[in-house]
Structures are given as C-alpha cells and as structure tokens.
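Per reviewer request, we include the raw input and output of the structure prediction for the construct analysed in the revised manuscript.
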Amino acid sequence: MMYGVNTGFGSLCTTIIPGEELQALQANLIRSHAVGTGPLVSAEIVRLMLATKIKALCQGFSAVEWSTVEALNALLDHDILPEVPSMGSLGASGDLAPLSHLTLVVMGEGRARVGAQSLTGAEALGLKGLQPIVLGPKEGLALINGTQFMLAHGLWLAVQTRRLSYLADVVASASIVGFDACSAPFDARIHAVRPHGGQTLVAARVRDFLQDSPAFVPIKDHIQDPYSFRCIPQVHGASNDVWAHVTDVMMREAESVTDNPTVFTDGGEVISAGNFHGQPLALALDYGKMALCEWGSISERRINQLCLGKRGLPAFLAHKPGTESGIMILQYSAASLVSRNKVLSHPSSTDSIDSSAGQEDHVSMGSIAAVHAVEVMERVWTILAMEWMAGTRALDHSGREAGPILSGLVDAYRTWVPAAKGDRVLADEIEITTQFLQSLPIEDEEFLCFELK
C-alpha cells in the first residue's frame, strides 16, 4: 500500500484502490478538487505557479514522468494560462484547489486564457497544436500537493515590493521638501548608532534623492517635524527589513520539494510527511502584509500634514481655500484605503479549521494571507500616488527647490498630469499618477537583485 498511488486521499487514505482504477484515481482527484471560487488570479501569478511547480517536480523527488513536466512547460512556452480562482485553498495539504484548476488544462479540461481569449482546456491546447496528457500513478497528487499558489504570490510580492519601497522613498522625498521638513533625521550618523539595514538604506536614498536641494537642510525655524516625516527611515526601513526576510523565505521555498509523499530513489524509500504545509509561507506573508500596510499608513499621515495649512502652504493645498476644497477629500480617500488595509492585515495564519474528517486538523490559511497581501500592496500603490499628488502640489505652492533628481521627476510627471489651477476631478488623476509611479525605471540594480542562499 502506497499513499496516493493505490490509496484514497486525505481521510480516505486507508481505502485500497484496485489496479484497474488507478488511472481513474488520479483524474478524479483533479476533477473533484477543482472547487475554487472568486476572482481569477493574475496572469503573472499563474505563470509563477507554473514555473515553480515545474521547478519543484524537476528536483526528482515526486515520481512523475518527464512528459508530464514537458506538458506543464508547454503551457508556459505557449502562454496558455489556466484560469485559477483566488479562493479555495487552506494552505496546508498543498494548494489543492488552485493547483487542480492549473492541472485540468494539461488534461484538456478546465479553462485557460490565450491572449485575450477564454477557452476550454481542450480548445487552448488545440489552438497551439498540443495534446492533453493522461496522468499516471501518483502524478495527480504530485501536481496539486504543493505550495505553489502561496509561493507564486509571495515571489510576485517580493519583486513588486522592492519597487514599491524604492518609490515610497521618492514620494516621501517630495513631501519632505513640500512640507519644509529638515534634513537632520536623515543624517548618516543617526543611523550608524542604530544600524538596522532598512533604515540606513532609506536615509541614504532620501539624501541621494534630495542632494543639492537648498531646502533640504538640518536647521529650520521649527525645531522638530511630525513623526510621519521625522521617522521615515525608521518606518520605511522596518518594512524593508521585513520584506528582506519574506523574500528569503520565498526564495528558499522556491528551491524546495513540497508534495507528498516524497520519493527517495537512492534508497528506494517513499516517505509520507508534511512538506506541503504552508505555515512558513503563511507566517511570512502575514508579516509582509503588515509591513506593506505601514508604508500606506505613514504616507496617508503625510498627506494629512500637507493639508493642514502649515509652513506656508494653503489649507488643503487649494488655490482659493473655501471657494475651493483642494485635496480635502483626497485625504479622506487615502484614509479609507488605509483602514481597509488594516482589516486585510489581520493575520490569517492564526486561524485553522479542521478538514478532511479530522485527518488534516491544522491548516495554515497561507493562501488567504497571500491574496490579502496582494490587495494590500495594490492599495498602497494608490496611497503613494495620492501622496505624490499632494507633495507635488505642495512644491508648486511653496516654490521650494527639490534638487535636480526630484525636479526632473516632477517635470516628467507634469507631462502626464498638468499642475492644478483650481479644483478638478481627481479620480482619473489618481489612476494616471499610479501608472506614472509604476512606470518609473529604477537604476539601483543591486537593490533589485535576488540571490539564492
């Protein structure tokens, strides 16, 4: 008797399957487990699911035919992207439901996107001249028993968060000058005596972005700035440090074998264990989404400070306060996103629900953390866009010189969004500004580099 080869699954693991039903066992596993619901995950994440599943199978501990690996790789080669719902996994026995939707397509079932078309699995394969496969013993289990749904989200977030963190410092730099904040909190000596890597990096970047700005000086008429300005290195930096850890977890998982049972061909052993359990990813993703939330939280506080009519700025950055409301309600909108992120940042991994008749009695809920983390990140991008709108308006009103780097970025932005001359509809401007920030190239190649450890 060998689990997943000639037995049932989950709490049915003691049910022996006769030889003539072994092929049906694997196909039925995929069909019965494809129970996902909710919005489809993005094309980028589906590609990462395919790539990480292929890599895991290629480690050689999963007992699948090479032709099965080639069939998955063909989906990537031809950009046939299975339609994978975002909800349905508990993040413990592997990401069973989403990976079942992924696997259906190589069987010629389910649905996939090819370009702008949504096709059946059979149609998608046929369009590219591919044939469906028949799963052999254990192959269905190997294809769906793994953490690739959580992992794909984590890897995507790791890449995007590195960009977000860099641009959060760019955006904050504009607000620093717009608000006439002083440079003293960014002095390298301050961070040398509290040498957390993240805060040291953020302070150095802000100094770089604002070099040669005559407004970025240590002594001002006001003695101290509010925490949302004075503590940018500490808050942004802590989130950077969290995501360095999260990225390390994800990169290690990308090198791992996470299906069950594990086949050791050198000694002829098949060991049933628990590498499918997503707890390492769940905890990391919960930690990561809280760190993401903080970039948005402190950004909204800077927007609020820019609205208060302090330091030579008009109330709400309006040209005619009273007749005009300026960005008053922009701050409301940012606050609503911050509040939503706080709800989504509640840890998922502290929850567990008994499943499979008590056989799977502790689950990670890492898939929920993964989906929520992506939504939090998307909302943070929007909040940063709102701050950039506020910061650049503050620069326009104050006439303060931000230095050549920031001034060049503001000039580029004004080709996308002209300077305001009065009240106008801001909804489209928020979306355009988000696109502008996400389009900016990042020249810090060392910061964007990933290394396996």
